[in-house]
Design goal:
269 residues; alpha/beta; two-stranded parallel ribbon; hydrolase activity, acting on ester bonds
Length: 269
Amino acid sequence: MLCSMPELIDTHCHLDAAEFDGTQGAVVGRARAAGVAQIVVPAVAADNFDAVLALRSRYGCPVALGLHPIYLNQHTAAHLALLDNLLEAERPVAVGEIGLDFWQEGLDPAQQEALLAAQLKLARRHDLPVLLHVRRAQDRVLKYLRQYPVPGGIAHAFNGSVQQAEAFIALGFCLGFGGAMSYSGSTRIRQLAATLPLDALVLETDAPDMRPEWAQGVPNEPANVAHYATLLASLRGVPLDTIAEITSQNAKRVLRLSAAAPVDLGKPV
């Protein structure tokens, strides 16, 4: 069914996660079979920069490099300097995954904000969009985006208000939707997905996390983007082809993605 429709893009997948060790080729193969042509892989800490870059080399995955707020206590000034160097040398599609997390305990807000500001400055210096992690910090992140404007990006796993969505869109951002849409009880997320401007929406999995309602016992996979596209088409009352075409165009525009190159999935890592 998906063969005749435009190719899909998973704009956020942690393919380097331990859950996928030794199975990345099969995971990518299932995604390609489901019509997912590109899988964007963001880094979360300096110690996984090399693994993420290896996935780009091996499977043609577009990658982002950044220091995630969840791992705040691991990051150092040396890691920021390394990130700066790699953004120049490796030219990822974005700086990410970066942002603020005011939900998880034990993460100093001021230190998070300093780290975010530093990485936004790097994005500005290298003219790169950003992949944003935002939990209970929508307005605070927007404040920093206004203070340090960057070339747009994606607000990953968007969970804010309509007004906050409009603010991100006005700053050149797309909004990521995925597994949260699949829950019948997620009425607010579904309403946002159904009514926000389609030219500002992208699809994502956050695999192996953010498992969909129908697959709680197994890791999430980029192949599920095909299911999310079908769900979004149903929520909006538009053809599946339209969702595939427009969300992929949005991803390509905001992350400046080129066409996916074919890779040999049987080649050893």
